[in-house]
Amino acid sequence: MVISLSACDKPYTNTDGDQEILKIAFNEVELNAYPYKIDKIVPLETTENNFLSDNLKVKITPDYIFVFDEEIRDAVHQFDHSGKYVGEIISIGEGPGKVNRIYDFTVSDMGVEILVGKGSYSEVVVVSTPDKRIVDTLRLDVIGFSFEKINGHYFVYSSYNYPLAEYRVSKIDLEGNTIAGFLKNDYSGKMVPMIERNFFGMGEKVFLVESFNNRIYALAQGQLKCKYILDFGSYNFAEDLLERDIMVTFEQLNADGFFSIRHHFENKAISLTGVHFQRENNSQSYHLLMDRNSNKLIKTKLEEGWGDIFKNPIAITDSDKVVFSAHPRNLIRNAENFDDNKVVARVLNKLENQDNPVLIYSDLQFRTKTNTQ
Amino acid sequence: MLVAGWQFGVSGTEAVFSDTEVALENRIAGSRNDCYQAMRYCDGTMTAYTCILDYTKWTCSQYYCQSCGLEAG
């Protein structure tokens, strides 16, 4: 059954069995110039040994903020909610208490859990938060690049690793046994593993996106289920893409232009999807935003300048704040966009270009088409 | 041939792989003996590497491959 809604700013609803899938025609969504209003800024304290880029994976818990720099990939750091540095949870290196490659991390009731690359397999290393001590190590029978833990199971992403990985997503129990697979690698072409971050969100709201796929999946009731399909019209991937040699096909793809879904965050009220268009040496980032109560959609084009401040979303809080990590130099460079915002003015007085990133908590404005900072 | 959006890269500090790891990665990437095909996001741009020495390294290379032949791939 397909339900078509006439308004262009709302998604179509498809049903696949008992599963509702929203199909969104990306090009038809209304463009909103500036949907974010900065409400709070938390500068992450800079110390002699915790320099960070603005490409961060951040997990916000009731007590702490945990940060992993996806550029440097050398450690998981702990801050309190004022941004004061608490210390290093774990770092790469040789010897006791160190790991050799950090691919991803999450936070559970066990502590901070790290996905570690071991070459032919992966491990989950559990670090107790209070004393920063490794309390458990679990060998997985898959190679994983991104993971999340939900309801006592790990979901591990292994990418387009045929024939080594039968499934791109494996569900693994706490003993390390693979008990289910999703997104089967059953293509015959030579795909190359795309190492990227795939899981977004925490707790009951975890989503998966991947390269060369215009679907957004939700982890729900122990299953991976398609929740959204983004229709990019003439830029949709060819159906036989996975059957081709991607190293040959990518050249044409790059010449023609293509969209990638880069991240998806969602709570009960709102969702944010990062979409990136790439053609040759040019690229453009968009945010697709949904008011989930009304299903109203808007999108914003992240223009150079103010857009640099909002290009790295890291979470949506329970109080509907969209949180971004931004480098201080981007905030300082674009200060004129925030002349009337006292929150920004107060922080700018203390910030320096070389400081660690700030976390920007923003309200979403669905109906404003101009900057109302 | 160097095409826009493509790079030919290796990492600066190379990890030493066991024979098993190398064999597995050859299977994964279908690559030549001493380097591997890989894809990464580099400064936000999807980039295909025809020859990267350390397949497991996440970040983008600043260095050109010296041993695998720049024209290959």
Strand content of chain B: 25-35%
How are the strands of the biggest sheet of chain B laid out side by side?
1-4-3
Percent in helix of chain A: under 10%
Overall pLDDT confidence of chain B: 49
Rg of chain A over CA atoms, rounded to whole Å, is 21 Å
Spatial strand arrangement across the major sheet of chain A: 1-2-3-21-20-19-18
Number of strands of chain B: 5
Notes on the protein architecture:
- The complex is a heterodimer of chains A (373) and B (73).
- Chain A has 373 residues and is mainly β.
- Chain A has helices at 246-256, 306-309, 328-333, 342-348, and strands at residues 2-3, 12-16, 19-25, 36-43, 56-60, 65-69, 75-79, 85-92, 98-99, 102-108, 111-117, 122-128, 133-140, 146-150, 153-157, 167-172, 178-184, 199-202, 205-208, 215-220, 223-231, 258-266, 270-279, 282-291, 296-301, 313-316, 322-326, 358-364.
- Chain A has a single domain (2-364), classed as 6 Propeller (Neuraminidase), CATH 2.120.10.30.
- Chain A contains four helices and 28 strands.
- In chain A, strand 20 (215-220) and strand 21 form a beta hairpin.
- Chain A is globular, with a radius of gyration of 21 Å.
- Chain B is an alpha+beta fold and 73 residues long.
- In chain B, the strands form two sheets. A three-stranded mixed β-sheet of chain B has the order 1-4-3. In chain B, strands 2-5 form a two-stranded antiparallel ribbon.
- The A-B interface holds A 70-71, 73, 101, 103, 117, 119-120, 143, 161, 163-164, 190, 192-196, 211, 246-247, 250-251, 254, 260, 276, 278, 280-281, 283, 285, 311 and B 3-6, 17-18, 20-21, 24, 27-30, 37-41, 44-46, 48, 50, 56, 58-59, 73.
